Amino acid sequence: MDAATLKPILREEMEKxxxxxxNAYSYLTTNDAGQVYAVIDFATVNQQxxxxxxxxxxxxxxxxxxxxxxxxxxxxxxxxxxxxxxQQIVLTYQTQFQPxx
Length: 101
Hints:
Number of helices: 2
CATH superfamily: XisI-like
Largest sheet: 6 strands, mixed
Strand order of the largest sheet: 1-2-3-4-5-6
Shape: elongated
Helix content: 10-25%
CATH architecture: 2-Layer Sandwich
């Protein structure tokens, strides 16, 4: 798939990770070029305010780099279900990874 095809699929799937949760709200944010995406959580846990990035992704040319994913099921699984070839998805948060060729 080319970047023009990947971009809307990636955005649609990432939007599913944003929204209201138990004592939390998650927001999808992206840069103007649509190359960097993040889902940021704002939560209250045990009367403590927590903020963190639970999903960080980059779209470089026609490759999706998932730098952080703390979700179950994962974005990788969602992208596979949408037909994105696994060779176009790199899980950089794993200790060892092979850059897409």
